[in-house]
Design a protein that fits this description.
The structure is a homotetramer. By secondary structure, chain A is of the alpha/beta class. The first copy, chain A, has a seven-stranded parallel β-sheet with strand order 3-2-1-4-5-7-6, sandwiched between helices. A seven-stranded mixed β-sheet of chain A has the order 9-10-8-11-14-13-12. In chain A, strand 13 and strand 14 form a beta hairpin. The longest helix of chain A is centred in the last third of the chain and has 15 residues. Chain A starts with a strand and ends in a 16-residue tail after the last helix. Chains A and D meet through strand 8, helix 9, strand 9, strand 10 and strand 11 of A and strand 8, helix 9, strand 9, strand 10 and strand 11 of D.
Chain lengths: ~350, ~350, ~350, ~350
Amino acid sequence: MIKVGIVGATGYAGAELVRLLTSHPQAEISAISSVSFQGQKLSEVYPAYLGINDMECETQEDVVEKSDVIFAALPHGLSQELAEKCISAGKAFIDLGADFRLESEDEYTEWYGGTFFDKNLHEQSVYGLPEFFRDNINGKKLIANPGCYTTCSPLAIAPAVKLGLVELKGIICDCKSGVTGAGRKPNQGSHFPELNEGFHAYKVASHRHTPEIEQTLSKLSGEKVTITFVPHLLPVNRGILATVYADIKQGVTFEEIRKAYEEFYKDEYFVRLLPNGMNADIHNVKYSNFCDISLHHDSRANKLIACAAIDNMVKGAAGQAIQNMNIIFGLDEKTGLEIMPPAF
Amino acid sequence: MIKVGIVGATGYAGAELVRLLTSHPQAEISAISSVSFQGQKLSEVYPAYLGINDMECETQEDVVEKSDVIFAALPHGLSQELAEKCISAGKAFIDLGADFRLESEDEYTEWYGGTFFDKNLHEQSVYGLPEFFRDNINGKKLIANPGCYTTCSPLAIAPAVKLGLVELKGIICDCKSGVTGAGRKPNQGSHFPELNEGFHAYKVASHRHTPEIEQTLSKLSGEKVTITFVPHLLPVNRGILATVYADIKQGVTFEEIRKAYEEFYKDEYFVRLLPNGMNADIHNVKYSNFCDISLHHDSRANKLIACAAIDNMVKGAAGQAIQNMNIIFGLDEKTGLEIMPPAF
Amino acid sequence: MIKVGIVGATGYAGAELVRLLTSHPQAEISAISSVSFQGQKLSEVYPAYLGINDMECETQEDVVEKSDVIFAALPHGLSQELAEKCISAGKAFIDLGADFRLESEDEYTEWYGGTFFDKNLHEQSVYGLPEFFRDNINGKKLIANPGCYTTCSPLAIAPAVKLGLVELKGIICDCKSGVTGAGRKPNQGSHFPELNEGFHAYKVASHRHTPEIEQTLSKLSGEKVTITFVPHLLPVNRGILATVYADIKQGVTFEEIRKAYEEFYKDEYFVRLLPNGMNADIHNVKYSNFCDISLHHDSRANKLIACAAIDNMVKGAAGQAIQNMNIIFGLDEKTGLEIMPPAF
Amino acid sequence: MIKVGIVGATGYAGAELVRLLTSHPQAEISAISSVSFQGQKLSEVYPAYLGINDMECETQEDVVEKSDVIFAALPHGLSQELAEKCISAGKAFIDLGADFRLESEDEYTEWYGGTFFDKNLHEQSVYGLPEFFRDNINGKKLIANPGCYTTCSPLAIAPAVKLGLVELKGIICDCKSGVTGAGRKPNQGSHFPELNEGFHAYKVASHRHTPEIEQTLSKLSGEKVTITFVPHLLPVNRGILATVYADIKQGVTFEEIRKAYEEFYKDEYFVRLLPNGMNADIHNVKYSNFCDISLHHDSRANKLIACAAIDNMVKGAAGQAIQNMNIIFGLDEKTGLEIMPPAF
């Protein structure tokens, strides 16, 4: 059994890690920590877990000591030092925060502020989006787990970008996210009466996930890609739908694109390429690690429109982190993640 | 592996059976049927299941033939004949409908219309609320699986009723249910714009679950109990909260009642008696087979107020049906049902 | 034009006062105040009001000086001193808080803590539930505007209580409220992901509205009434449904009760007694000052079950406050309040 | 008083017309009709209206006879014949359906099927989007009231298109609508449990509102415009948000665009151009005739991103229809429509 520690267990991503790991057949939670709730039981914070996980929140040090792999679900800027401790102690470290996601320190400084604490550490890290970078992840100990938008958007458009079927210029990611993506801390914007029955864009063309999506698409295409990214807030708990627009290259048919997607994703258990005529819906991936993709053709404007739906807390956070753990520990990638999304 | 067949698989209870049985370690779904969708795949009806369960809907006959146990999720009146076929063929039969729930044919006729198709069959059946009637269920082949309100309300008040701590006269069950309880068929009342942001009672003091709750409480107390039952419709997908009111008998203290509940439910995995100060919430049992109970004392009017929360589709339908299957097949009752409710 | 000032205009009740007064034909908002947002425009707090009400939040003193009548929507304990200033200055004062609602200082101390600042002031005040106490309100200058639960619950049961058709002992008010009743300040319980798809009781048999409901029912019946009151939190923005249970007195028929209600409410514009067979629904009173009441008979237990639905922010707060203003200024009670609830 | 008749009064648009006209100071509802509910009261269909509008549904003929202006809220294809009757009888006719919206019969045939019943009639009709075509509407008797998406999307981008500040090629309208847009008739997609907590695109690049948006943008720009239009379904009752993307022309600055919008909309009461930094939100326009617009600049890709929010049933249907009525009857355009959107 892999001994798993969770730092930041009382945030939403941490709590979701606990839920998923509880039914993982080859991992056991060895310790959890929380700055805000140290000394309290997780089930006091989340009564849903009562009797199933009544572990007490310990310190980060306890977690590191008791675990083979540490998942960190922390605000950005707080993971780098912890990562160094874990790696030095020979542990694996999977960061659900943003500290190791961007390879360029300049971009990190531009979008997040701050600098790289230890450049060497950053060179050891790998970006953990298995469907694209599985081979690099294998054998690593320091994983930068992607964000939610940055998982969903590239999955929607990757085959077309990688295979040169669409123009790289002018790609638009119009994304809509459930509110758990904004975290557990109450604020005016997520106060029930003000979010309920509402809908709006936010951080238009200025969200921090922009350079991360571009980094992935640039790697896949081999060229520097600039995108337009607009997130919106949905009055639902879970789920992201990315509607991605790209101009189809002259001479390429929609049928060729469809075929390319089928080939690209044919061995990917977690990607469900929907039959033509269906629409990806966040309703159908809730609580699971699936990414549903539907492809559409605007034949009048000759655009590819690809919709991808994930559960932002699973494939967009905790589930993907466990998928990465499975890879680096040599397990079947699906272990503990073959979860059937409920029908309603 | 137990071979399980599901008749009425495309309704909500049927679809939930499929979800839960898919991860059951000692059962496999052998066949499913649906009158409305015969010949179609379940995943065409519920795209959430795509790639996980793409079974085709066959006929009832196919299901009976291929299965050791048949779950029937049918409108009332349609199970009796099917039950006879199954029992004759030596199969187990678990009815999620109402046909075998009431022991009195007169009551059945009064509340549902129609008569008992085969009295002998009814005598072989047992009412499957394991927390109360486990010993009777063991060894049976024909199970009347309780309804949702009729699971939640008795669980809330049973210890007090059974042990004579409250007056049997004047018990009120004020219940609130999510809308999946009304089934998959669209109608005006469950049309999104008319239910959303709404709340109302329905079938006030005239709902068919009334005699079933009374039958259970009468069995537990040994006296004929008449209750007041008022259901309400919540604008949420899943969950029932029962708020049950009873007059505390003179000389009995709230602390004695609390202790009695603790003793009564101390070995019940699926019942979580919450610490004083907490309130049972449907949020905390979603997608799981748990029943959360909180006890409250109105010391001014000397009433016991017991709140019980379940997921109406799990402990209130499909989960409890599987719990019954586990019992009659000699498995640990929890098999396949140790599901952690998500924190959000 | 009546010059109206609002103290605490940026809370939900204050904001609703602004909305309703904006279309009041004989009142104009002279000034608004807010401790948290002083110097800011109301439309910065509520962008829905942009261009319609861009008034700046001033001080309490400004409000008092510029107004004929002051509405105070303040946390309890903060109104008494302000009331005294207003009354001394010859202004009318309508308190949407709890400071003047209870006539008994002992009860106030027991349920709220603190004491009556000025007993004389309390004697000048009147409890503003017009359907019952209209004659007392007329001519007064200091109005204690009822709370939301304390409007809805008595309206449901008043005729039966006043006319002695039900037992006064054992009345139960099982109430369900939308979340705006908890105010504008974000907290964990009203954080969208934790309230959405949830439902639970709170402050069971210990909510501060209990003595206020009892005071009203005691006045109506002429006897001291003790009730059981259990509030629940609905995942909707607006609305309260009160389901009230009472034992019908021997010899009284349900038809007599129905007739009594019809007679009692026949001239009340804001009370809509629904035809038999309909269920009061919060959906149908949203944004309006109506109270819909449906009557039901549990003939098996011989109980009256009365459901009443209001918009907690209108008839349960701001609308009723304006209704009171209309009375004390000699206007038609309906002025500015003939709002058609939207169909969806 | 203008005598107003409503054909199709029991659909959502019809019911919203009733709500808005009830408080219109210079109009009175003379008659209503409904094929499905003929002979029944409107308040039986919508109990929210009980006591306020208990009119009985009559025949179309009755409506035409009793009215100066007829609003028709009918499925497409059913308005043309009725329009002819009304116009022949000297009545004004405002069609909330699609029959008169497209000027090109070929486009009508392509997107809707069927042909123009009477070409002459079509030539008398005018497209009623007052902010753009007010001068044409004045004096007309036959108004094609725009659809919801087709109001919101052009309002978002019109100034930039009309003044040549953005490229006409490649405009994308990514729209999200509340579910009332799909009408009152229950179906699987709007069944509460399947829509709630879900989100998906539909009719991607194939929705019938596409040519209507293009027609408006072509008129404004003087060139044939082709757009990409993708609608999505939001789990809320009311509201549309259009997120519109366009490439800024070389040499044009975002500040110039901002100024152009300010100038373009400076006299438009119903358009609220939000200050920079704010995001248009459907929450803030609910139940009102406002269109909130926020402008954003993607400086990295040099795109204009304009968000526009309306209430799909008011500015997107019934409210705009009344705005058109006001124009053709020579009233102030705002009459009866100065509705403050509620803060929550």
